[in-house]
Each structure stands twice: as C-alpha cells, then as structure tokens.
Amino acid sequence: MWRYRAAIPLTRNSNTVSFDEGFTPLVPLDFGGRSAFLKQDHLFPTGSFKDRGASVLVSKVRELGIKKVVIDSSGNAGAAVAAYCARAGIMCEVFVPAGTLPGKLASIRAYGAKLRLVPGTREDAARAARRSAVRTYYASHYWNPFFFQGTKTFAYEVCEQLGWRAPDVIVLPCGNGTLVLGADLGFRDLRAAKVIKRIPKIIAVQAANCAPIYQSFRSGRRLVPRIKPRPTLAEGIAIAEPLRGRQIIDAVGKTGGSFLTVSEKEIGDAGRDMGRRGFFIEPTAAATIAGLIRYLERAPKKETIVSVITGHGLKAPEKSGPASDSRTGDGARLRVR
Ligand SMILES: *Cc1c(COP(=O)(O)O)cnc(C)c1O
Questions:
Q1: Mean pLDDT score across all residues of the chain
Q2: What are the start-end ranges of the H helices in 262-321?
Q3: Over the stretch 204-230, which tens digit does the pLDDT of each residue have?
Q4: End-to-end CA, the chain
Q5: Residue 330 pLDDT grade (very low, low, confident, very high; cuts 50, 70, 90)
Q6: Which residue's alpha carbon is nearest to atom 14 within ligand 1?
Q7: Res. 264: pLDDT tops 70
C-alpha cells in the first residue's frame, strides 16, 4: 500500500512503519449467476484490513516521537495497532470488551501489548480507553484521522487493479465506518486527480441485530438513534454508538448508495458458503458477503461490483467453522467471560 506514498501525509520516509503489506488480490467470484470482485483484505499481516490504517497511524505516531499509545477495539483494530507498535518499538495498551474472541486476544498478547479486559459492552471498553487517553496518546482507529489516511488505499488499489477504472458499486461493512469513510476519501482523491470520473455507489452493510446507522438512514434523519443492540455473530461491526454516524450517512448518501442489514442466518450461511469455496473468513467478514449476496439479487446486470473479505477465519476458528450455526446463542456460549 506504500506504493501510494505520495498521497499519504507523512513527512519523512524513514518514519514509515510497514511489513510491505497491501495490494491484496482482487478475485472475481460467482454468486448465483452474478459476478463480483472480492478484495482479499483478510490476507494482511494481522488478518484484517485494519492493517491499512494501523500502518499509517503508527507511522505518524513514530513521526510525532510518541512512545506509548492506547486504543480500544473489538479485537482486530487492537491487534493491528499492537502489531505495528511492536514493529516500531512503541508501547501499546489495548482495551477490549471482556467477551472478545480468544483468537483476537491471543494475537494482541503475542504482539506484546498490554491487554485490558473491560467487563461490559464495546462502549464500556471505549470509555475506559478514553479515561486512559487523558495521559497517553489515543491511537483510536475511529477518532484518529490518520487511520483513514491508511484505509483510503483500499480505493486506490481497487481502481489500479481494475485498470485505473472505478467500479460502479462497492459493498462494504459498516460498524465505525473506517473502511466506508476511508474508501470514500480514496475515491474522492482519485476523482480530484481526474483518474476517475465518478465515485462508486457505496452500499454499507450492518448486522440487523445492531444497525443504528441503517435505522437513521431509513428514517431520513441524520441523528443516529439510541438502540438496544442484540448479540450478533458479526461482533466486529456491532457498534451501537458510532462516533462518525452522521459523517457516514452523509458520505454514503452523496455517492447515491444506501445501507442494508443482514440477519444472523444470512451471516452464518454466507460464512459457510465461502468456506466451501476455499475462503476461511471470520463471521464479521461473512456479514459483508451476506450483504453482497443481498445486493446482487436486485443489482442491474451491467454493474461492476466490488466487495471485500475483511477478516481471516483464523481470528475466530470457534465461530467460523462448520460446527457453528446461525443461531446467535452458539457464538455467545463460546465466548470467554
Ligand atoms: C473493523 C472490522 C469491520 C468493520 O469496520 P468498521 O470500521 O467498524 O466499519 C469489518 N470486518 C472486520 C473483520 C473488521 O475487523
């Protein structure tokens, strides 16, 4: 992804923190007679697209001479920032909900980060991190703008891989919107540089059990409602109080796109279907594929459609395998308390 160095706001090359990651393969895949391109962002060093943002954010942290950071996460962003901090020799403290998947916790520990298990919800973990961030740099993937300067490379890569053309539609996950907003930023860069003419329609996917932004978009309001989230297999997008909710609604709306939700059954089915085709993906990633399948049912024939595999199945083997089913209770029982 650092092939786009000129577009990344870092002052000195020597501050770059990288594993030579990115430019993930884009493969066409058939869904019931309709084809879409899938970007394999589960093949990043820490197993999710969050490495895009972490590489740029931690590079900036190094450039600022900061020696210690804190972050809160449902797992993958914490793992990504912890890995890049390890590479840069920066101390990292990660706040996660106590129920976070064991695979995600193991990798955060392996990277040598200080792991803080916070009882309660994802929002409780965020509040604990913000208290700690009063004294320490907050390397948050959804607050810190430098994270989005990394996730925007998703759009550059997609266009380059299509022969410097933009797709008509991209189907992306939506929790905190770091990929939605990053991709939008990247496509707008390319339009400003006259590389592409039009920004693709963004279809943003939420889990039906936790869909505050979908609800607000549907009601035509920009205010994100307070919801009572139900548990979902797609814990990585289960964000009940998205900080940038309004920004996400505006960005998606401007592209002519929209939001859709997927059920627990659709998420489970999509994950199993992908496994049978040779893609071992985590349930949160399966939610986006379920959204893609939903979109393809009514998509105009001529559209070029791109979606993404956001996270590797090895992150959550206990929930990604054939033994798991679409009932939410199954996943909940396997969680570490
Ligand atoms: C973070 C994440 C998402 C959702 O990204 P947001 O920035 O919260 O919208 C989707 N899938 C996986 C695997 C993730 O780690």
A1: 93
A2: 264-276, 283-297, 317-320
A3: 999 999 999 999 999 887 788 889 889
A4: 37
A5: very low
A6: 236
A7: yes
What is the mean predicted confidence (pLDDT) over 41-66?
98
What region, left, alpha or beta, does residue 256 occupy, with left being phi > 0 and alpha being psi -120 to 50 degrees? left
For residues 81 and 118, give the distance between their C-alpha atoms in angstroms, rounded to a whole number: 18
Q: How far is the CA of 237 from the centre of ligand 1 (A)?
A: 6
**Contact in structure between 164 and 195 (CB atoms under 8 Å):** yes
Is the CB of 46 inside a 6 Å radius of any atom of ligand 1?
no
Q: Is 237 in the pocket of ligand 1 (CB under 6 A)?
A: yes
SS3 of residue 326 by DSSP: coil
DSSP letter at 309 equals E
Half-sphere exposure in the Cβ direction for 167 (13 Å, CA)? 28
Mind giving me the DSSP string for 61-104? HHHTT--EEEEE-SSHHHHHHHHHHHHHT-EEEEEEETT--HHH
| Residues forming a β-bridge with 92 | 69
- Cα–Cα dist 301/91, whole Å: 50
The answer on pLDDT for 329 being more than 70 is: no
3-state secondary structure of 291: helix
Q: How far apart are CA 81 and CA 90, in angstroms?
A: 10
CA 226 to ligand 1 centroid distance, Å = 20
**In the numeric block, which tokens belong to residue 104?**
């995600």
Q: Which of 298, 291, 239, 296 shows the shortest CA–CA distance to 270?
A: 291
Q: Using 50, 70 and 90 to split pLDDT, how confident is the model at 154?
A: very high
What's the CA gap between 142 and 275, in Å, rounded?
A: 30
Name the residue at shortest CA distance from atom 7 of ligand 1. Answer: 178
**Ligand 1 nearest-atom number relative to CA 151:** 7
Q: What is the H or E stretch that residue 40 is in?
A: strand 34-40
Rounded to whole angstroms, how far apart are CA atoms 146 and 67? Answer: 17
**CA separation for the pair 337, 133 (Å, rounded):** 25
Question: Ligand 1, closest atom to CA 141?
Answer: 7
- Write down the pTM of the prediction: 0.93
Exposed e or buried b for every residue in 291-307, given b needs 16+ CB within 10 A?
Answer: bbbbbbeebeeeeebbb
- Tell me which DSSP letter residue 251 carries: H
